[in-house]
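Appendix B. Chain record.
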Amino acid sequence: MTALRWLVDLIRGALIGTVEIIPGVSGGTVALITGVYETIITSAGNLVRGVLLALGGIVRADLRPRAREHLRLVRWGVLIPIGIGMLGAIVLASALLAPTIEEYPVETRAVFAGLIVASLVVPARMVGRWGVREVLLALVAAIAAFLLTGLPAVDDADPSLWLVAVSAAFAVCALVLPGVSGSFVLVVIGIYAPTLDAVNDRDLVYLGTFVLGAIVGLAAFVSTLQWLLAHHHAATLAVMTGLMAGSLRALWPWQSESGALEAPTGDVLPIVLLFLAGVAAVSAMVIAETLIVRRREAAAAQDEVSAER
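Structure tokens predicted for this chain:
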């Protein structure tokens, strides 16, 4: 049973890792569908806090028991095979995607844009009831994101390491929000292609900086984001929805080398079909997630009724 469980979790990790490489497809959504979302988020949070407390325990002995407690709460038997599966899938998917993006930039942006457009339904639906406040927050966030993505693009051939670390810190926040893609954050900032190249080239300095930034983000920003979701749920998700919508500017298929938007050229129909294919792919995933969640809720309700009897 243990070997079978490891195999299942390896496959789950591979699925999550594969979609995390694709801008617009949320690893959090796949984690929800495969039933390991809560385990990953909780265990990752405990792992980071445990490591940080252990480091602090070098100076303060009173922190060591707290560090051991957090590390004890990590579901190692689930987290390790999922992590191995994710890592293997990321390496393989990066090797396939990097040359495709370089050779077909218009086509890949069209697919990615379709993926993002369909993903918007997830945070928008999680808002619940949209009132005037939520609409205004989403509009302001969308305008801000549109303007920011219109700024001159960074030189993404060789991004500075501080930018890599900061980008990773923000991208890891997407783990908390099903429907939000961490890779899309990298696209918007302008370091998506260099990150794929770093994985393919085994650039340990770049990758180490990225991992360090992700750990810092997981320790700092994710906890803050979880607090915002708990105390200002609708407002936070409305802002997220607006940011995603406004950032779609970065995925307009026809762009100059500097990132300026251009009018459609050439044969437009295949580009539209690729966009629609992206929409269809994520829509199918969202529908699957909805059906699975409803089934689990119905089963939980049935269990409660049975327990009361």
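Further analysis of this model is presented in Appendix C.
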